[in-house]
Amino acid sequence: MYFLNKYIVDYQYYLMHKYIKESISSVSSSVSPSFWLLAVTLIFLMFYSLRPWFLWSISGFIVNIIATLILLFYYIYNGNIKRRCNSKYKYVTIFYVLVVLWNFYIGYRGVYLVFLFALLATDKEKERILSWWTNFYAIVLVISLIAWLSTFVGALPNHGTIIADNGFNHIYTNYWFCTKGFTYPFRFHSVFLEPGHTATIGAFTLYANKYQFKKPAVIAILICCLFTLSLVGYLLIPIGYAIVKMLHSSYYVVFKNLMLSCFILGIIILCGLYYNGGNNYLNEFILERLEIDDEKGIVGNNRTSEYTDLLFDRSIKNGNAIWGMSQQKYKQLRFSDDIHGAGYKIYILQKGIIGAVLVFFFYFFFYRTARDKRFALGLFILYILTFIQRAYPFWYSWLFIFLFATSLPNRKSCIALKV
């Protein structure tokens, strides 16, 4: 076990060194100083939305105000705000403003207008920022993964415990470069709150990059996502890969890759089921959660508590689900541990069916703005699937990846991996 961990750490270090050099060379080429303001601001907002532990104490309101001022300065400095306004975003803007107004009306302050300034970026700027984000996210994950693996061989001391301020008081062992949740120490989640958050954004980033495995950063993100043992990540990544393949490959290539994928998947399932009598992390965290359940559909559909399910069903019957509940009432139920979880049920209980409908139309019109609508439709489907299990549609990491993906040109060649 020691030599296996050492080999993985050495390989990850080599991979990190390789694409850091590539990232630096790509970033430093023909980039204006003012563009750094735009890129760094958007990337920081994406990173902040994932709630890394060392940013917990920074107010979201302050972050949004500063980001808004920086973006406003950038566009004024470049003197082309009017020219940057694009009529194709009119419905996106309308529904986003409606979402903001609805959230304020029912007492929530989690959606900000800074997103509208991001819409003013040009397609070339968005495409370049996507590349920067991909490299940045990969570097963060690889450094964290090396640190996380080092903890199992005693090579990295911990610095005590920290408690998340997310209302659930989750406890983590802090290693600075990574954290370990007390309830899932063998699942990698970098410096973020949950393995699912890490894997979800990883899956979205891989899709936005069209699974171009010639890029070291794309490979690094994929490898790191595997260590999360996240069911949502293990589902989104192959589904997204299949969508992109079907969009840009011949039927023969799709069939050949489907057969190969089924064979590899079969081998993985057999290993999980029978290795060590099924007593392994792959079987425990992934395969067993895919078993059929009469009530939940699958065992892994456990994102809400029993009382939350009961409250949701009751709200649907009495009509309260249409409007949602006040922030004060939701906080009271959450802190008393009467309601907890994630996914569409929690979102509807909070924001109501009206809020969920606004989210759907916002992303629907968003996908319709894409230069490659078939590709954007695939990402839209992934977002809907993710919303069912973890509904965070207005995290900047969700918003900006979708924005960058819809700005990519319609290209025939997208998957660099040849099978």
Q: Your description of this structure?
A:
Helix content is 63%, strand content 3%. With 419 residues, it is mainly alpha-helical. A three-stranded antiparallel sheet has the order 1-2-3, with no helix packed on it. A two-stranded antiparallel sheet has the order 4-5. It starts with a helix and ends in a 13-residue tail after the last helix. The model is unreliable at 24-29, 296-300 and 412-419 (pLDDT under 50).
Tell me briefly what this model is.
The chain contains 17 helices and 5 strands.
Shape: globular
Give the structural class: mainly alpha
Helix count from the secondary structure assignment: 17
SSE string, helices as H and strands as E:
HHHHHHHEEEHHHHHEEHHHHH
What's the Cα radius of gyration?
22 Å
Key words describing this protein structure:
mainly alpha; disordered C terminus; 17 helices; three-stranded antiparallel sheet; 419 residues; single chain; two-stranded antiparallel ribbon
